[in-house]
């Protein structure tokens, strides 16, 4: 194993990073649509039961190498960012 | 917009979550391979220059809805978890 393998692996990593970026933003778009519906129906944007349900579905499909606790931590960061995005959208809507 | 749209969006969200899970773990597998090479060549596992380079590549491809700062935050969490995974692998290798 040498420089060639390392370059190949780094290239692969960059590709995965961009696919991840695309999916994280795709998820954010879905979150925004859900936020719009919730806003119209005056529903609470934070839904801990739905969040737990999502985490459970994700964890039950986790075959590593990341541990369940790590996967849960990463997704909770994504959820938190998504909630902030919905709140920003809501604030902007109120300002119109 | 009603219950039907919400159910559809939630289904879409669950699908994206599982694709994200798959990619995050695919990334972790690449990280482990890189960790093995680095271990054999006694290279430092944490490489801030490479990390900055990855973040820059990701950010330059970010078209939202998430802000660059949010994307950077999420990826740094993934990087941190990846480094911990490499360190676990290294500790296990030392124990063999």
UniProtKB/TrEMBL annotation, chains A, B:
Keywords: Transferase
Name this polypeptide is given: Bifunctional 3-deoxy-7-phosphoheptulonate synthase/chorismate mutase
Full protein segment contained here: 1 to 96 of 364
N-terminal signal peptide: none
Entry superkingdom: Bacteria
Coiled-coil intervals, chain numbering: none
Domain Chorismate mutase: 1-90
């Amino acid at each position: 194993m040498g420089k060639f393998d390392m370059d190949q692996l780094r290239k692969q990593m960059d590709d995965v990073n961009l696919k991840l970026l695309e999916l994280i933003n795709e998820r954010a778009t879905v979150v925004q649509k859900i936020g719009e519906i919730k806003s119209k129906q005056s529903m609470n944007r934070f839904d801990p039961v739905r969040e737990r349900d999502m985490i459970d579905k994700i964890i039950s499909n986790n075959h590593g190498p990341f541990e369940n606790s790590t996967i849960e931590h990463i997704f909770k960061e994504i959820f938190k960012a998504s909630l902030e995005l919905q709140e920003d959208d809501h604030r902007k809507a109120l300002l119109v």
